[in-house]
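A quick aside before the break. I want you to see a complete sequence-to-structure record at least once, exactly as it would be stored in a machine-readable document. Don't worry about memorizing anything.
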Amino acid sequence: MSTNVAPIARAGPSTPAESQGLGPLTAPLAPATIGTDPARQYLQFVFDVLRRRRWFVLCFAVLIAGIAAMIVNQIDPLYRAETQLVLDAPQSRSPASGLASLLGGGGGDLFSNETEAAVLTSLNLADRIVKVLNLGNSPFFTGSRSLGVRLGEWRQDLQAHLSLFLPQGYRQYLAPAKAEEPKPPPTGELANRVYETYFRNLTVRAGDRSRVIEIRFIADDPRLAAAVANTLAATYIEDQVTEARRVATRETSWLAGRLQEARTRVDDVMQRLEEFRASAGILDLNGNTAQQRQMVEYNQQLMTAQIRRADLDGRARQLQQLIDGGGRFEDSEIALDAPGIQQLRNQETAAARQLAELATQYREAHPRLQQAQAELDDIHAKIKAEMRRLVAAAANQARLAKDQETALAAKVSELTQELQQQGKSQLTLRLLEADLKTSSTIYETMLNRMREVNAMEGRIDTPLVRVISRAIPPDHPFFPNKPLLVTVAAAVAAMFGVLLAFVLDLLDVGFRNRQQIENLTGLETVASLPWVKPLDQARRLGDMRRILRARTEFAEAVRYIRVSLSLSPDPNRPVRSILVTSAFDGEGKTFTSRALAVTYAVGEKRVITVDCDLRQRLRRRSRQGEADPLPGLAEYLLGAADAGEIFGTDRATGLDHIDCGDTKTLVDAPILLSSERMRNLLHALSTQYDMVILDTPPVKRFPDTLILQQEVDKVLFLIRWAKTPREMALDALKTIIQSGHMNPVVGLTQVDLRHLRRYDYAANVSKHHRETYLPRPEAG
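That is the input. The structure line, written in tokens, reads:
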């Protein structure tokens, strides 16, 4: 169905065709543009592509999802079994207890857990598990589940099912299943593959904040996965007990011998130490020898003597300084401490007081005053004599203190020499004591170790590792998650489908709607002509009126083209000549020209069609169905016929037309079309008829159209829907515009209306509107 919407010319200084290197096609046709919001255009483009390609995206996603489902169904399911161990804390916390660490794994700290996890993943345990469970002959570990093996399994299953339906006598013909012979253990590359599969599917995780160790194993058989996990845990516990027994036996034997040696050494060192003390005369009393105690006592006495001598020397020097300097003896500290001096001072005070009292009563020459003065002088003399005695005594005491100090210093020197002589003996004594202490420590440590080993021997068969959760065969595989994988594959396929939809839409070579033409060229576009199924039959019969009555949508599209081409910007100069062309052959130029002529004739206008395609090498017969064809345009241009001889009439439509004529003798068609004779013919036709329609050859092949377009009012350029390459159509339009015709009208032909609605919103007219606005086809 056509879209009866007025064409909208795009305005702007340039068109998208210019960005493709085609240059400007035409000048702006409108002062403003409608619906040019970039965001809206982008969203509309995205929505249009998704709407047009929705079935492609859906089918692509369903196809990929189906393929993914088939692939997923071929993947062998994997089952995961899990066993949990707990490492109990050891009962002995002694740092020397190595046996407890063997039995308990260290008590649950991070490093011990990681160590036990490393033991569980060791090659020694793996070798035992492979041998115990005979994993070397398992197809999962050897990778021998090839297509041939699977076909053999399917054949056996098929035979088992067929045996249920076959008679008893025919079952003997079925090949019996052969008993599998025991295979030797794998070696070389096969053994490496077994161990690689084992370690790849084994996971041992140690708890960071607990003493729990998880053992997980993955296999294609749930029973095999559970068997490997449980066997590994049991083998690990058994190895711990066996290793503990071996270590205990070896340690007991080793400790028994070393303990006796340590005891013998301790006794020997003690005996040598006592003998050395006795021989060296070193008696240890509270940790000190006799010489050391005497040295301490004499040092103390020497220090006391030195202090006393220094005090006496100071007193003697002080008294001597008083004597030599004429000072008052009675004012010195020594005089104050002496009892005799104190008594004489008291007497001196009393005599001086008495003298002072007499001096107030008597004169200086009085006898009692002189007697008192004489007594005071006598006391002063006694004080001086006492002071001299004290000075002599202090000097004597200083000499005695010095002699005592000298004696004590000599004794201390003697004791120092004796201690130096005993230094070597004390060094030997210290070495012997250190040896005794070391030997005693070693003996005590080994004795404690022996006690611990004896205490742990009773608990060897009860290891501190236990299973808290045994692995059971899982009911469902954990891989593959078929719904999830198929869903993800469908989602990814949908994404790629959307991407491919955009790629296909961008790689579309032809035009799908008028909006695309307007966006790229900025030219006026008219209605799209639907594809008429009996097109070849219609051309043969030439009954265009019947086609227009039977195909209402096609008729309305042709009428819309007629109205659009009849519009003229100058009312005083109506449109009287139209040129119909295209880029290539087969785009419906002749069919459209005849349909357009019929619609003009319905409006009681005189119409004539002129076949200007002089490139044909076969003479066309007239559309009247006459036996002898009329001369055509070629004969007229060559001068072989007059203007009145070339006109013909179509019996079906009653319209006049001029055929191309016999083109065999033509040498240069462009010269004939640009001749004065051709211009006179067109001028005469436009004077005699209301509408002249010229059917011209393709622009991309021949330049004839570029000559004739100078003589017409409108140029109708036809583009075949979804077939004509855009670059070729744009190049042909550019050629027409550069040749002088600035505003060609563009139309789409042979449009598939079922697919057009996917590319053009305006084509989505409901059935109700089509029945309302379109005339019903006439009978006959």
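Two observations worth writing down. The radius of gyration is 66 Å. The first helix runs from residue 16 to 19. We'll return to this after the break.
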